[in-house]
Each structure stands twice: as C-alpha cells, then as structure tokens.
Amino acid sequence: MEQTAAGSRSEGVDWLPWGPAAFDWAAAERRPVLLAIGATWCPACAGMARATYRDPAVCDLIESGFVPIRVDAVRRPDIGERYTLGGWPTTAFLTPAGHLLGGETYVDPQRMLVLLRRVAEAFGRRADEIGAPPPLPASDSAVPPPAGDDPDWLERRLLEQFDPLHGGFGSASKHLHAPALRYGLRRIAAGHDVLVEVVTQTLDAVFQGGLFDGVEGGAFRYCTGRDWSAPRVEKLLAENADALDLLLDGWSVLGDMRCRDLAIGVIRYVRDNLAAPDGGGFYASQYGDDGYYAAAADRRARLSAPLVDRSVYAEGTARMAAAFLHAGERFDDSSLVEFAAAALERVVAETYERGNGIAHAAGGGESVRGLLADQVWTSAALLDLYAAADREVHLDMAHELMRFSLRHLFDAAAGRFIDRVVAADDVGLLREPLIPFDTNCAAAGVLARLGRLTGKDEFGRRATALLDALAPAAQARGADAAPWALASLDLHV
Predict the structure, then answer these.
(1) How many other C-beta atoms lie within 10 A of the C-beta of residue 351?
(2) Residue range(s) of every CATH 3.40.30.10 domain in the chain
(3) Which sign does the torsion angle of CA 354, 359, 362, 366 carry?
(4) Residue 469 parent element (H or E)
(5) pTM above 0.90, yes or no
(6) pLDDT (tens digit, 9 = 90+) per residue, 359-390?
C-alpha cells in the first residue's frame, strides 16, 4: 500500500483515518474498505491488533486489495454507533460509498485470511452491483404505541425485570443500571415503597459483588456473572460518573454509609487516575488488565498500572463534573466544586465555536463537532455549576448550547433530536441521522430546567412535547426507560 500523509504504519497495517480521502481512494482503486473499530480500554481490541494485524499474510492481503480505516469508537461515537457489529473489536467491510457489506467482531489471523479473500473476490465480481445502503441500526424512530395513560408502568417493568435471587435486572450479566436505581430512590424519597426491595437488594448485591475495585476504588464496566462476579475490569469515565451519582443518592435517601464509603472510593480513584492536572478535564478510561486487578493489594502495588487513555472528551468530562458537583454539595467539599468548574470551563473554552456548538475532544487536533450528546451533557453540567456558583456565564452558555441544538439537531417531523449535525462531506451511514433515546431524555430534563431558570415558557413546552414524543419508545424499553422517567420527574419539580 502506498504510504500517505494521512496514514501511519502501525501493527503492520498502514491505517488511514476515517474521512472522504480514504473513501475517494477506495472508489478510484475500486477496493472495498476494511473498517476496524475499537477502544483504547478494550483488551480484545489490543489482542486483535497484536495477533491479527501483525500477521504478515493478513497484512499482505490488506495492502494489496483493501483500504484499511481504523476508528476509536470513543473518539468517534457517531461512527461506532452506526457501524459496530455486536461489540468491539468490530471488523466491518464497506463499499467505497461507506455502505456496510458485512463483518464480525474479533477475528483471528486464519479467519481473517478467509474473510479477506471472500470479500475481495465477491467485490471484484460484483463491484458495479454493490452500493445500495442497508437499513440503519434499530433506533427509536419506529416503536410500539404506548399502553395507555399508566403512571405506574415503569415500576411494574422494573419489578418484572428484577432478579430476586441476585439483585439487579435480568438473569444474565449484570450492569449497574444507575438511572433505574436512581429513579427507584427518587420514588422512595417521595414516599412510595414499591421499589424499596428492588433498590436495597440490588445495592446489597453490588456491595458484596465484584463491580467495584476494593483496592483502588472506582467501578468496573460490568459483571459477566449473574451474581455480580467476574467483572470486566475496564474503568470508563461515564460509568464511574453514573456510579458516583447513584451512590450519593443512596447515601442521601437511605442513609446507607456503605454508599458513602464507596462514593469516597470512586472520588479517590478518579482524582488519582482520571483527573487531568490543574482542572484540565477528566481522562476517558483506564485499560482493562485482568491480571493487575486480580492481584492482591500488596502485589498490585509492585505492578505497573494499566494505561490510562488521556483523551479529554466533552460529554465524559461534563458527566463527571456534574457528579463532582453533586459530591461537593453532599460532602461540603469546595475542592470538588472547584475542580469540576475548572474542568468544565476548560473544555468549553477549548471546544466552543460561536454558532457551531462544542466539539467532542479537547486538547487540540481534529475533533468531530456538533454531536448532540456533547451539547446536552455539557449544558446539564453548566446548569449544575450555575446552581453551585451562581455565575450567569454558566447559565448563558447552557442556554446557547441548547439553542444550537434546537436550531441544528431538532427534527421537527419526529419531534425529537438527532444525534449529530450532518456535514456535506459525510460518507455512508453518517448521512443518516439516529435518534438517541437516552440523550433525548437528558435534553428534555435540561430544557425543563432552562425553562424554570430563565422564565421562558418555550423551554418547558418543548420539554413536555419531547417527553411525549419519547413516550412510546420509553414504554418499549423496560428498565432502560428510566432516563425518560427521571426527566419526567425533573419536568414536574
């Protein structure tokens, strides 16, 4: 493969970044695209990079017949959401127009040789026939109608999905489901006891299980065992922000000191490992090293800590900044508030562009701009900061980011927000918008708060209309509908 300025020799494959240049080359050379999607915290991605993409025979086939593109799904969540096939690593084959031909997840060298030959042969025979885009991944644009006006439907869904043997929801791997538990805590605080057992038994199981790191603090990604055992030991910023918020709510509502102690552990872990110096934001993740996290404390102290991805992303920093603000209030700790304020202000200062919202990544270099999640979560954190510091600049910026979202990301026909601004040079599935459920729910909550703080009825009306538009999708999601329910509670505060 001819070396280009955009490419870089790495792991035996001369990877190109996602962009029009790579797809133009694929079209000119009549080659299919090999798209590798992964994440820096993912051991399987690292394993495939070491084994498959260093295999000489694999590299030769890629070089002679494919245009290889590698994408970090955290740096480009919009690409990951459209092209990921069942998990990471994703190995996807695309047309030069960016349409999906097929693919798999982890592929060893022998299997990759088979796939490369098959795709090259099929594409060579049928290149002129290939080009129609496949359906987009399922979104919430078409869902069953709501089951009537039933205010207790979510409580019933949570009870139906609750695992009475081990706590949590479902009978397979266990995720924290922080929004569902926070909703339960909000209901308990309001005097409703239907979900008391669901919340308390789940928290008991979490305290006794393997989801939290008992040595260094912090939450792992999830547990593969139904009994909260066998954790996947990656530590991600957003999951730790969710965990911290949940633990603070548990301590506040239930008075459970175990929640307080675990919250302190999360704060300590984040400050020691994921906090950029001098309030420069929060780092994205720490790699999942099974051997390191399985080691006892004395042995772990002699090992090299897993690598931290020091990328600073707007959404992740905003979510952790909001959790730090919550913790600062609960612990009466001004240092947490000050760090959160510095982190949030740095990201906004570095990524905001007048009239174009904020970009995804801070720290310079190219970054995708106009993602809904960045605008919404940053706005939410700015409103929290306004409540803590009473500075109009924070309210004004939250207002500006949501105005940008309403102008450029709101689909009037659907009555909901799309996930990204579509650019003229977008390729393939990036031309087709998605409607992200959780982020739309968060947007409704932000609009409701903006309405109260600014006295503008328009925002409250938009929040109500947005939640109404999301209601059918919510009732189809079971425990995952909790973000909608939380936003509904925020609307009626």
Answers:
(1) 23
(2) 8-126
(3) negative
(4) helix 457-475
(5) yes
(6) 999 987 789 999 999 999 999 999 999 999 99
- Residue ranges matching CATH 1.50.10.20 in the chain: 331-493
DSSP string for residues in 297-335: HHHHTTSPPPPEEEEEBHHHHHHHHHHHHHHHHHHT-HH
Written as one string, the DSSP assignment of 414-446 is TTEE-SBPPPTT--GGGGS----HHHHHHHHHH
The CATH classification of domain 152-312, taken from the options 3.40.718.10, 1.50.10.10, 3.30.70.1230, 1.20.1250.20 = 1.50.10.10
Residue 8: which pLDDT band, with cuts at 50, 70 and 90? Answer: very low
157's tokens: 């869904």
For the stretch 127-142, pLDDT in tens is 666 655 555 555 554 4
In whole angstroms, what is the distance from residue 99 CA to residue 429 CA?
7
* 284 contacts: CB under 8 Å, gap ≥ 6: 40, 41, 74, 236, 237, 274, 309, 310, 311, 312, 313, 316
Classify domain 8-126 by CATH architecture: 3-Layer(aba) Sandwich (3.40)
Contact indicator for 482, 185 with CB cutoff of 8 Å: no
**Domain 331-493 grouped into CATH 1.50.10.20:** yes
Q: Where in the chain is the domain with CATH 1.50.10.10?
A: 152-312
Which amino acid would we find at residue 119?
A: V
CA distance 184 to 170: 16
